[in-house]
Every structure is written in structure tokens, then in C-alpha cells.
Amino acid sequence: MARPRTRPPLLRLERERLLELDYALTKEWLETDGLGGYASSTVLQCPTRRYHGLLVAPTSLSEKRYSFLARLEESVHSTSERALAEGGEKHFALSLVRYPGAWSPAGHQTLESFELRPYPTWTHRIGGATLVRSLLMVKGSPTVLIRYDWLDAAAPIELRLRPLCTFREADALTHENVDLHPEVQYLDSAKRTLRFKPYDALPSMVLELAGDGAFHADPLWYRNVELRVDLERGYDGHEDHFSPGQFRVRLEPGQSAFVCATLREPPVDLEQLWNLQERQRRERSSATLASAPLALQLGADDFLYRARDGRLGVIAGFPWFLEWGRDTYISLPGLLLARGRVEECGEALEGATRLMRDGLMPNIFGRDAATSHYGSVDASLWFARAVRLYELAGGDEERIERRLRPALIEIAECYARGTALGIACDEGLLIRAGDARTNATWMDAVTPSGPVTPRHGFAVEINALWYALLAHLEELAGRSGKSAQTAQWRSAREKAGASFLQRFWLPERRHLADVWLEGRADASVRPNMVLAAALEFSPLSVLQRADIVRVAENDLLTPRGLRTLAPRDPAYIGRYGGGTLERDRAYHQGTVWPWLTGFYVEAYLRAHGANATTRAHLRRLLDGFAVELGGHGLNHVSEVFDGDPPHRPGGCFAQAWSSAELLRAYALCETT
Questions:
Q1: pLDDT in tens, 283-295
Q2: Distance, CA of 378 to CA of 460 (rounded, Å)
Q3: In 100, 111, 472, 483, which residue has its Cα 20 to 30 A from 430's Cα atom?
């Protein structure tokens, strides 16, 4: 069967680069199912971290992800009469796996190219023939499909596909054990569909073949698979994979075969399902932001997901983050509003208010419903900012007035009264939070000795967001004709604004303090002042915004975003690497965060205007990220980068607010 015509690939790696293992093993692809699950590995299909897997998904009972199918051990076997006459069966490995001191098998040697179409596709040259392997996840289902096409061939082959299973929490490791049940249950007489449930506590996985072949039970363990990135990050990096057997599939020249792994019932027709998913992707593969790279726009959809209750949310990053309030509300404007998807943004925001109303708020507003305990001071304030941007984008007025505005009022009143985590409003109507033992802001790294970046007290971006909330409530009340409320919010805004300038503005240094506590201002040069300078509602003048931007440009700006601390500061750490302790110490002490680029662009435009020269200058900064879309996480921008050149990537290879804020920055340069 001929493959459907596809658009040119978003990215293509040729054989020469794929044979450079140290290069190719840093390139990671990602497929998502829209439910919080994913498939991911390196472009060589060689796992390098515990999070790699072909089916990693939450279960019906928990949002926590579990790894079910780690990989497939794949090989091609020639069964032609000529091959047998010349000395027996010939076989070629397609897989690549690392064991201590050895690679086995070395299937990358037949690999000719890797492409994103946008789903991952591998082309192997075997003799004069071509084997094409493609993989995609089914949207809306914890299901992965793998397709094999045998092209340009004169004789049939036999594919042997051995599923290697883990059935463990995604951030754990598994080892050979006596508790595993090795048996499989065949769901059809041809032995092409089977159910595998190795542990009673986890759901079963269904494996299905569409092709001329069957599954052959042959249980065994593959021991001591080495995960080199985990080892580099200071973790245990060896585990065992269990295989219940293998599919043996005969492929005639020009034929295709499909393999499916799912946590649901087996699909009726794998080929039909593949064609449907491919057609839907072609329809979605279009740019809505003319200036932003298509790869960045397509990758943005990976972070959007439906929770078990149907609510639209945002996965903070892959492969290890789940949903977090701060990340969600910083990301929504870029992921959705910047691409014209206003209604979906409103839906996500309204879904959050339902969680607030129903008391189901873990990680969403930074507050635990049962205790009113806040894990962060800023998640609710970022929600308020997202509501304002939704409004400016033309969001539904009735939704804003009836559902979102009451949530904003509740947030403001709760902060003013005070709550856990030391959140309170003082006599100057500014917000303090945290203590010497806790980190309440986004700079939240903690080691056994305490917070790495202590910011308890009055943090600059928290109070800038607080001022913006008060100003927005004033405007909403005025628009509704509620004069008493308008006066109340105006009075609070004016007092908070005066206190903000008095405490945070450093006239001799011409920038904002990072934290104010007990009459003392922390003058460290950090990017949080840029967040304050970027906001629409602000007590800062245009000249003050310009001064902040100038300091940030001189001390913090890199080609990959803003440093978290100026290099001249004695506490600066320019490299993010090593074990957990070393990484935590560097996390907010100089490490570069790409998401801050969006706020730098916004602050720059507010300070210098949106003329053609300004936009061109900022576009050059944004366009510099294009190389990263084919760098570490394909179609994605990493969580962090080193503060020192050459600014190596680190952290998650796909981070929601990194992509989101770059998209929002492109939109600002187009429309401001």
C-alpha cells in the first residue's frame, strides 16, 4: 500500500549526523496524546533517561504518569530462497540500546534519515530496499501507533518486534522481580491481539498487530539497560525491561504493517485509525502566527491536555512535569491567545474557577483546598493576568463579568485578609509572603540547607502583579457602573502604587529592587524587575521602564533569554549541571530561562515603542531561538540554559512557558 502524501518534513537529520552518537543521542522527539500521556525517545530510539518510553500515561485512578511500554526491540530477517541458499537467514537490527560498556544491538548502522513530518519517521536502507518506520500517538486516547513500510524491495522480509515493558511510575526504575506475571491473554484466534497485565495494581496494556503475522510468547528479561542522561544527572541509571514475547510479521514488497499499544480496548482498524490521525495532523499543520516558526507553533499543542473531568489544562513540561498553576497561567496567553484561540483560553480559565468554587485546587491556584495552604504566592496573580489578557484579546464579556470577575475579587480579598504561607497585605497595601525557611515565588529551589534564593518578604514581581490586579478590578467595576467599588479599588491601587515606588525603586541604580524586607531593599540584579516593567498596569513611568530594560539588556540578556542573576554578582553560577544539589544551587543563581524573553520583549516595547526599528531588533532576538527547535527537544525549547556561553540547554527538553512566551513575543511584535 502506498503511503499518503505528506508535507515536507519540519526537520530532517541525515545519516552522517545520526552516526555521531554523542550528537544524535541529545536529540529527543515528543508525541503527546492530549490527555497528559506521551511517547518520547532520542532520534536513534535509544533510551537515555527513565522518562523515555513509547507509552507513558496517567491511569484512570491517578494523574501521575506510568511507563508501560519502554521500547521495541526490532529486527529485519530475510527469508528469501536466495538468502537461504547463500548461507542461511540474514538479519539486520533496527534498535540501538546501551548496556554497561557496550551497544547492543547497533541498529543505527542501517539508518539513513530521521524526519519529523511532524510525527517521527525513520528510514532504514537494507540492501537495495527501504524500511520506513513511523510513530504517532492517537489524540484523545492513551494509544501509540507504529507503522512499518517495506519499499523498493524485490523480496519479502520478516519483521520481529519484541515489546519491552516497564509498568512502573514514570520517574522510577524497574528491575527483575518475582512478582511479575509473565502470561499474556490472547484476544483473537490469530494471536494478533493480546492483553498483558504483569502487576495487579496497574491497568493492563493491549498490544495489537495489523499485518501478516502473529505474537509468539517468549518471556524474558533484558537486564541492565543503561540510561546515560540519568547517570549524568546524578541518579541511578540502570534498569531491567521485561518482554512477554515477540510479533513476527511477514512484509511483502510495498506492504505496510501496524502495531498498536493501548490502555484501552483495541482499535477496530489500525490502518484506518492511522490514516485518520495523519489527515487530522495535515489539517492542523498550518501557521497562525505569520512570523513565528511553524515548528514552535506545532509544538505548542503538546502542552494542552484534557484532565479527567474534561477541563482544558496545560502540562508544564515534558518529560517529568505535570500541571502547575503558575506555569499554566503564564503559558495560556502564548499557547492560545497569541494563536487566535481565544475561546479555548476562556474555557481553560473558566475551568479553573470551577475548581476554585468546588474546592478542588491542588497546584491550580497554588492553594490546597482542604487547608487553604498556599504552595506559592503568585499562581493566583498569574491567573488574574491571564484573565486580563483574555479580555484584551476579545474574550466573552459575559464570561468575564459573571465567572471570571468574581474569581478575581475573591483572590484580591483573600490576599488582603491574609492566608497561609505568610501571605498578607501590610499597611502600605503591598503583599508579603514566605519566611526564611520557604520559597514562595517562582525562584523556589531548596537544598537541605534551605532556600537557595531567599525571597521572603515583599517580592517585586508579586507586588507588580498585585498592583495590576487592583487596577484591573478598578476598571471592571467602573465599566459595570459600580462607583463605590470603583473608588474602593482605585484607593487601594493608588496606595499600593505609591508604596511600590517608595520601597522598590532605586534612584541611584535606576532599577527596581528584587525584594524589600524590614526596611531593606535587595538590590540584586534579577529578571523579576523586568516582569514588573512589562505589565500593562504599573506605577512605573516610561522612563523607569526604559532604565530597567537597559540594565537587563546589559547584565541579564543572552541569546537564550534572561539570566536569573547578573554575572558580576558574587553569588552568580554560570553553569547548570552536575548532580541534584549542584543543579539546584544554580537554578536561579545565573541560569537562563527562555520564558523571560516574552516579558523582556513586552517591557522593551512599552519603554521604546513599537516602531519598525524596535520590532526588527526584537525579532532578531526571537529568531535566534529557531536553532533550538532542532536542538535538544525537537519542536521545543528547553526549560533552562547555562548562564555562560555557549548557553547549553538543561532541564526539561520541552517546557510550556518557554514556547508560550516566545509565541506571545512574536505576536507582540506583529500587533503592538
A1: 887 778 888 999 9
A2: 11
A3: 483
